[in-house]
Structures are given as C-alpha cells and as structure tokens.
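Annex B. Sample input.
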Amino acid sequence: MQQSECSSINVKTARKCLGLIRDIANRGASSWDANVVGYALQELSQVLLERTGEDERSFEPVPAHEISGLDELRVELEWVDGFSREMSVGQRCN
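Annex B, continued. Sample output.
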C-alpha cells in the first residue's frame, strides 16, 4: 500500500472516530438520566486519557494521517457507542 493510500485510510478512520465521539457525547448531553450523562462523560474521558498514557493532558495538533493506533481507538469508541446506545433508549430530552 502506498503512503498516500495509508494517509487517506487514516484520515477516514480519524473522521469515523470523531463521529463516534460526537454520537456518544450527543446521547449523554441529550439524556435526562444522570447515569447516561456520567457514563458518556466518564467513558469518553477514560478512552481519550488512555490514548495519551499520562494523567496530564497536553494536546498538540497533529494531522490525521500522522496519528497512529486509530483502528484501536475506533474499536474502543464503537464499544462505548454500543453501550451508550443501549443505556439511552427512551432516555432522551427534547
């Protein structure tokens, strides 16, 4: 696989990860159930913290094609996404 193909795949995976984060956060923000809100916030925080391996966060902008481990991040986010969907059934505010 050529570098441009890998970069394109990584950018698509990065977009998928951001979409999952958006969906999980939206369900938490739209719920009247404090458990759903807390779950979304805590799990997203945990998943994202595990990505850095440090307690203190320091973000440096990095192009999506330079981010490693996005497939693993996507798998974790899909797992959290599934559970937050189950928890939020019938629990949405308007």
